[in-house]
Amino acid sequence: AQSVTQPDIHITVSEGASLELRCNYSYGATPYLFWYVQSPGQGLQLLLKYFSGDTLVQGIKGFEAEFKRSQSSFNLRKPSVHWSDAAEYFCAVGRAGGTSYGKLTFGQGTILTVHP
Amino acid sequence: EPEVTQTPSHQVTQMGQEVILRCVPISNHLYFYWYRQILGQKVEFLVSFYNNEISEKSEIFDDQFSVERPDGSNFTLKIRSTKLEDSAMYFCASSGQQGEAFFGQGTRLTVV
């Protein structure tokens, strides 16, 4: 069965500092990987996705993530964090084909706090 | 930008009552989903729906749950007899032929 682990429940960074949120997955085939962000009272917004090809993917709001098959990881990064990035971040894994793209297994989320 | 919309944003119901959560997926999407997130827990898959039938469902999606696409635009989740443990945020999502799922804002269901 597939699973996703986000080892950090809560991360605090200063505004302007760099950020890396960790995600490890367990999946028997080629995974389709996603990062979503949830601001308070909001839904889940897709930041970026990895389906195939270049293992470094760019997303919205200046985020990027790198797929490392050997480490079963898909860590999210941002070079300089803004106060508006404070939110909860979810890593998720899915598989190819039809409804399977949207049948996701989520990690437990990482809450990001940004200090001014 | 097209988006998935869910109504109501918050629903309070008494235990044992039926509730219907409503969703309008993105118009050209073909695949539809419901997820739930119990407070403090992971977002969990409930069900996927394609071509007017359920494609997959999780073990959470038991006989008290049902989904329907009553017309060309709405997608609903019905819980027949709510329990306290059904209190959660319910998310609807939709996806196209090849691509990622887009989520709605969620409906917070509180069972009292």
What does this molecule look like?
- The complex is a heterodimer of chains A (116) and B (112).
- Chain A is an all-beta fold and 116 residues long.
- Helix content of chain A is 0%, strand content 50%.
- Chain A is built from no helices and twelve strands.
- In chain A, the strands form three sheets. In chain A, strands 2, 5, 6, 10, 11 and 12 form a six-stranded mixed beta sheet that branches. In chain A, strands 3-9-8-7 form a four-stranded antiparallel beta sheet, with no helix packed on it.
- In chain A, strand 8 and strand 9 form a beta hairpin.
- The radius of gyration of chain A is 14 Å and the shape is globular.
- Chain B is mostly beta strands and 112 residues long.
- In chain B, 0% of the residues lie in helices and 51% in strands.
- The model of chain B has no long low-confidence stretch (mean pLDDT 93).
Mean pLDDT of chain B: 93
Helix-strand pattern of chain B, N to C?
EEEEEEEEEEE
Helical percentage of chain A: under 10%
Biggest β-sheet of chain B: count, sense, barrel? 7 strands, mixed
Quaternary structure of the protein: heterodimer
Q: Please, how many helices of chain B?
A: 0
Question: How big a fraction of the residues of chain A is strand?
Answer: over 45%
Shape verdict of chain A: globular
The Rg value of chain A, from CA coordinates, equals: 14 Å
Shape of chain B: globular
Low-confidence stretches of chain B: none
User: Count of DSSP E strands of chain B?
Assistant: 11
Distance between the termini of chain A: 41 Å
Greatest interface and its participating residue counts:
A-B, 22 and 28 residues
Short description:
Chain A is mainly β and 116 residues long. Chain A is built from no helices and twelve strands.
